[in-house]
Design a protein that fits this description.
mainly alpha; about 0% strand
């Protein structure tokens, strides 16, 4: 199984159209659909944070350069131009990420409508929905959540969880 970091890079490269046909097909495999969507949503959140960071930086620039007279005006104009350029690039990339999210959702809907596994157990569907909702709401997954999701891929990670440590953390 591909590492989370490598998979996330592959998703970003897919948005930039810098992947091979095989890599593009890999992302769209049935077993990767949820992971693909989660990474696209994470990418959108990252880009939104970058825009907020740019805005905060602009505010600091106005505070700093606003007191420097003519030199400050020139410096502020240069800083604003750089911020505008960076924001433009982030928003342009965000647009392409949104398009990819739309594609991912269309594929998921089409797959659900023509599911090749109509008798797939309700527990599998419940685990997939749990993961989807956790990501949509923005809840940080626990070790137990991660182990549960790994079971979808045939991995048993519950043995790796130190229940005593988790219990102590909850008591604190």
């Amino acid at each position: 199984m591909m590492s989370d970091e490598t998979f996330a890079r592959l998703v970003a490269d897919d948005v930039k159209n810098r992947v091979t046909d095989e890599q593009r097909q890999y992302l769209r495999l049935s077993e990767n659909r949820d992971r693909w969507m989660i990474n696209i949503i994470a990418l959108l959140r990252n880009l939104d944070q970058q825009v907020r960071d740019i805005e905060a930086h602009e505010e600091r620039d106005r505070e700093i350069y606003g007191t420097l007279g003519e030199d400050g005006i020139r410096l502020l104009a240069e800083a604003q131009a750089a911020s505008d350029e960076r924001r433009k690039k982030v928003l342009r990339f965000r647009y392409h990420v949104e398009k990819r999210l739309d594609e991912c959702e269309r594929i998921n809907i089409a797959h659900d409508d023509h599911d090749t596994e109509p008798d797939r157990p309700i527990l599998r569907r419940a685990i997939e929905k749990h993961r989807e909702m956790t990501e949509q709401v923005g809840i940080n997954p626990t070790e137990i959540d991660t182990a549960l999701w790994a079971s979808l891929g045939g991995e048993w990670k519950f043995a790796e969880i130190d229940v005593d440590r988790l219990s102590e953390e909850l008591d604190d």
